[in-house]
Specification:
single chain; alpha/beta; YbaK protein; 5-stranded mixed β-sheet; 3-stranded antiparallel β-sheet; 8 strands; globular
């Protein structure tokens, strides 16, 4: 059961969470539709290589990582998206592409887009394409201590607000 490692970690730290079982889904949009959770609340874990080192970037499920912004925010020379076959071995207890945003369980640095810090709760894959975990963002932040940065691609409306 992929979620057991995560559950043990959260239970050991007295963190409250809800585990939601759902039919198999592979994208944040599909998970949101099945579970009736808005895409902006679903925390999507995107795997990147920063100067050749594997790391996690967590963004709202309805958004995409801006690699230029990531590179600039972290002062690295290269920021590249990583394909599933390239990172599958890093998460031996998870289905490929369903890893939770807890890099500390896998020896990885975690970066979170600042927009997620505004939500009371986040929901994320719990190691399988059939289980979603929901918990308070503050509890996630306390346990994981991620680096918070602004890395999502801006919408047209956001760009217009920034320009105006």
């Amino acid at each position: 059961m992929p979620v057991q490692r995560l559950k043990d970690f959260l239970d050991k730290n007295d963190i409250q969470y809800i585990l939601i079982s759902h039919s198999r889904a592979y994208t944040a949009a599909a998970i949101g539709a099945i579970t009736h959770i808005p895409g902006k609340v679903i925390a999507k874990t995107v795997m990147v290589k920063l100067d050749g080192k594997l790391a996690m970037v967590v963004v709202p499920g309805s958004r995409h990582v801006n690699l230029g912004a990531l590179k600039s925010a972290l002062g690295v020379n290269s920021a590249l998206l990583v394909t599933e076959p390239e990172f599958a071995d890093a998460f031996p207890d998870c289905e490929v592409g369903a890893m939770p945003p807890f890099g500390s369980l896998y020896g990885l640095q975690v970066y979170v887009d600042e927009t997620l810090t505004h939500d009371e709760e986040i929901a994320f894959n719990a190691g399988s394409h059939r289980e979603l975990m929901r918990m308070r963002y503050k509890d996630f932040e306390q346990l994981e201590n991620p680096t918070v940065i602004d890395v999502v691609k801006k919408t047209t409306a956001e760009l217009e607000r920034m320009a105006g």
